[in-house]
Amino acid sequence: ACRALEWAAVDGVLTADRSQLTTQDGNAPMNTQTKILAALLMVTIIALTTTATLGYFIYERTLSDLLISRFELTATELKRKVETGLDLGLPVGELENLNELLRQEILTDNALVRLSIENARGIILFDTDASRIGTSASAWLDVLVQAEPKTSDVLVRESEIGVPLINSFGKIVGGLLVVYSKNYYDSKRAET
Q1: Which of 4, 27, 85, 98 has its CA 20 to 30 A from that of 107?
Q2: How far apart are CA 175 and CA 34, in angstroms?
Q3: Confidence (pLDDT) at 119
Q4: Whole-angstrom Cα distance, residue 137 to residue 157?
Q5: pLDDT (0 to 100) of residue 2
Q6: pLDDT-derived band at 132, boundaries 50, 70, 90
Q7: Distance between CA atoms of 114 and 86, rounded to whole angstroms?
Q8: Would the pLDDT of 106 be above 80?
Q9: What is the mean pLDDT of residues 169-176?
Q10: Distances in Å between the alpha carbon of 104 and those of 77, 97, 125?
Q11: What's the pTM?
Q12: What are the phi and psi torsion angles at 128 (to 5°)?
């Protein structure tokens, strides 16, 4: 609360001695302009912080989408090459150059961890790691088999991208799995 003002009459006009206008703690009270300025400053700080935070999250989402898009392109290009052999009437297991094709592709990108081709029963026929050949793969292909197969189907999981291999009759005869490392790009981004 403010102390009472002392009024003085000067030339018939009452005036207050403003030097005595103080709060109990000895500070001058905030006037309306100061309050408005403080509120505007607070709103500006909150707006800038929110904008920076949202900008960061948009950057992260865009980078993640770009990364996924890049490996989707790798998967669809490999799918196109494999399906060219399938269109000649050869079964997936009899395509001769697939191991070499997968090895060449994995050498082009350090972020690729694994490339694998499996048949419709989920048995790995070709893989960049020879020890996996002949073993059962994960059930990712079952998700695509249960749905209506389309040539544009792409299954994206945490760090895996799977595409079905479809023969010229429209039947799913296998699948191609691309596994990539998110940590590789995180470490590259941290270096910059």
Answers
A1: 85
A2: 68
A3: 86
A4: 15
A5: 47
A6: confident
A7: 22
A8: yes
A9: 86
A10: 13, 11, 17
A11: 0.67
A12: -75, -15
Instruction: Kindly give the pairing relationship between strand 13-16 and strand 160-166.
Output: unpaired
**Confidence band, pLDDT 50/70/90 cuts, at residue 52:** very high
The residue ranking higher by pLDDT, 26 or 130, is 130
Q: How far apart are CA 166 and CA 187, in angstroms?
A: 36
Q: For residue 149, how many other CB atoms are within 10 A of its CB?
A: 14
Q: Which amino acid is at 152?
A: S
Which residues touch 168 (CB under 8 Å, ≥6 apart)? 86, 87, 89
Q: Which pair of tokens denotes residue 92?
A: 């997936």
Average pLDDT, the chain: 80
Q: Following DSSP, what letter does each residue of the chain receive, concatenated? A: -PPPPPEEEETTEEEE-GGG---TTSPPPP-HHHHHHHHHHHHHHHHHHHHHHHHHHHHHHHHHHHHHHHHHHHHHHHHHHHHHHHHTT--GGG-TTHHHHHHHHHHT-TTEEEEEEEETTSBEEEESSGGGTTSB--THHHHHHHSPP-TT--EE-SSEEEEEEE-TTS-EEEEEEEEE-HHHHHHHHHH-
